[in-house]
Amino acid sequence: MNQDPFGNRNPQSRRRGAGGLRLWVLVLFAGYAAYYWYSNRTVDPYTGEEVMIDKGLSAEDESAMGLQAYREILGQERAVDPDAQVARQIRAIAERLISRVDEVEADLAAEKGVQPRNFAGNFEWQVSVIESGQANAFALPGGKMAVYTGLVPIARNADGMAVVMGHEIAHALMRHGAQRMARGKLEQIGQMAGAASGMDAGTLQTVMSAYGVTSALPYARGHESQADEVGLMLAAAACFDPAEAMPLWERMAQLGGGQSPPEFASTHPSAESRIAHLQSLQQKAMGFRQKYCGQGGGAAAAG
């Protein structure tokens, strides 16, 4: 029997025992991750795909988080007078988009053979315009929205603004924030498993970096493409011109001198990919516009 002079067991035996323990730790973490993934699956009515959203996160909880974030942002930024012309124009665009949410969800759900969920039925919509040079906008769970004045010259017209605002509304309707939170929990489980298995910090960082490029970033880009599609249908159904989407994103691509990271290293599709995708959706979008706005396309847009 291999023993050291002091009667301790062979160090190799201890290493084998530690390796077995680490293996069981990994198995337990993997089992919990699989359980979490399977038990929190739901069908997205806009895409017909199964997505992961923590069932412990209610619509009320999401709305409360959205409201808190909205108040914090407005507490730090300077909002435009609600009676100012730009604020009234942007609210009017939002109202038209919001008025078509239920119809667009029902149409897209029927196309995928699933039932609409009307998740946004209890949203308390509110739109603010923020004085800032940023060409940006957002929509939070619960229906809290903001548009930065820097977006106005880039949008150029109501149709371009509707494309951006429809995209942001789509993120809230599709619960992309809740999906990212659930995925974040799985990522934390993976990091804990790596640490518990004895993986050194450098190796763990390398693994997480590879995961980011091969999984996390494509996942984020997928959300952007989904929001582009649903937002475009929403804008078209609200009688805006979906053809304005391509020149809008051409102008967005020119911001900052046209410099942007390569698509594989970004959370967003490249301008070229985005424009090509929006171009491919034009026929479908015009079908929505004709259905809800008649032959003239913009007849219902007056007022």
Describe it for me?
Helix 8 runs parallel beside helix 11 (282-293) and helix 9 runs antiparallel to helix 10. This protein has one domain. It is mainly α and 303 residues long. The strands form two sheets. It has a three-stranded mixed sheet, with helices on both faces. It has a two-stranded antiparallel sheet with strand order 1-2. A hairpin with a 3-residue loop joins strand 4 and strand 5 (144-148). The model is unreliable at 299-303 (pLDDT under 50). It has eleven helices and five strands.
Helices and strands in order, then pairings?
Blueprint: H1 11-39, E1 41-43, E2 50-52, H2 59-76, H3 85-98, H4 101-112, E3 126-130, E4 137-140, E5 144-148, H5 152-155, H6 158-173, H7 176-196, H8 201-237, H9 245-254, H10 271-280, H11 282-293
Parallel strand pairs: 3-5
Antiparallel strand pairs: 1-2, 4-5
What is the global morphology? Answer: globular
Distance between the termini: 92 Å
**Helix/strand/pairing class, anyone?**
mainly alpha
> How would you state the average pLDDT, rounded?
86
Order of helices and strands: HEEHHHEEEHHHHHHH
Compute the CA-based radius of gyration: 24 Å
Percent helix range: 55-70%
Bin the strand percentage.
5-15%
Largest sheet: 3 strands, mixed
List keywords for this structure.
303 residues, mainly alpha, 11 helices, 5 strands
Could you give a short description of this structure?
With 303 residues, the chain is mostly helical. The chain contains 11 helices and 5 strands, in the order H-E-E-H-H-H-E-E-E-H-H-H-H-H-H-H. The protein has helices at residues 11-39, 59-76, 85-98, 101-112, 152-155, 158-173, 176-196, 201-237, 245-254, 271-280, 282-293; strands at 41-43, 50-52, 126-130, 137-140, 144-148.
